[in-house]
Amino acid sequence: SSIMSLSEAEVQSARGAWEKIYVDAEDNGTTVLVRMFTEHPDTKSYFTHFKGMDSAEEMKQSDQVRGHGKKVFSAINNMVQHLDNSEAFLGIVTPLGKKHATQLKIDPKNFRIICDIILQLMEEKFGGDCKASFEKVTNEICTHLNNIYKEEGW
After folding, report:
1. What are phi and psi of 82, to 5 degrees?
2. pTM of whole model > 0.90?
3. How far is CA 74 from CA 38, 44, 81, 125, 144, in A?
4. Which candidate, 84, 83, 108, 109, places its Cα nearest to that of 96?
5. How many CA atoms, within 13 angstroms, populate the side-chain half-sphere of residue 152?
6. pLDDT(113) > 60
7. Would you state the torsion angle of the CA atoms of residues 128, 17, 75, 120, taken in this order, to the nearest 10 degrees?
8. Residue 88 to residues 1, 3, 105: CA-CA distances in angstroms?
9. Residue 105: which region, alpha, beta or left (left: phi > 0; alpha: psi -120 to 50)?
C-alpha cells in the first residue's frame, strides 16, 4: 500500500536515478552539504563543529562533514528502498522528522534546500531525465517531513 503519489513505474525509475548518485554516497553527500553550507551559510549554525569552516576545501576534508553527508544519503537511501511500502517509509521518516524538529530544532526549509541541491547534482552528473525521475520522491520526503513538523507544533 503506497501513500505516495508515485506509480510503480515512477518508483522504479526513481530508484534507478538514486542508485547512480548513491554509488558514491560519501563523496556526493559531502558535495551536497558543502554546497548547502556555502550557498546558505546560515545552515552552518546548526552544526557547531562546522561553524568555523569558511572554505569549501576545508569542509570537504572534514570528517564530520563527510560523516554527516554519508548519513544524509543513507537516510534517503532507506526511504527510497521503501517507496512502495508506506508503513516502512513512515517508519523511517517519522523518527527522523521528530528528532530534527524537537531535539535538533532544524528549520524544515533546510530539507527542501538539501533536496534541491541533490536534484541539481543529479542533473549535472546524469542529465535532466535523472533529475526529473527523482523530483517526485524529494517532494514526498519534504511533504512528510513538513507534516511531522506541523504535528510537533512548528
Report:
1. -120, 25
2. yes
3. 22, 21, 11, 19, 18
4. 108
5. 22
6. yes
7. -10
8. 10, 11, 24
9. left
What are 55-65's pLDDT values in tens digits?
A: 999 999 999 99
* Sequence ranges of the domains in the chain: 8-152
Q: Is the dihedral of CA 14, 152, 34, 48 positive or negative?
A: negative
Mapped to the 3 state alphabet, what secondary structure does the chain carry?
Answer: CCCCCCCHHHHHHHHHHHHHHHCCHHHHHHHHHHHHHHHCHHHHHHCCCCCCCCCHHHHHHCHHHHHHHHHHHHHHHHHHHCCCCHHHHHHHHHHHHHHHHHHCCCCCHHHHHHHHHHHHHHHHHHCHHHHHHHHHHHHHHHHHHHHHHHHCCC
Cell 553527500 identifies what position? 29
CATH match for 8-152 among 3.40.640.10, 3.20.20.210, 3.20.20.80, 1.10.490.10: 1.10.490.10
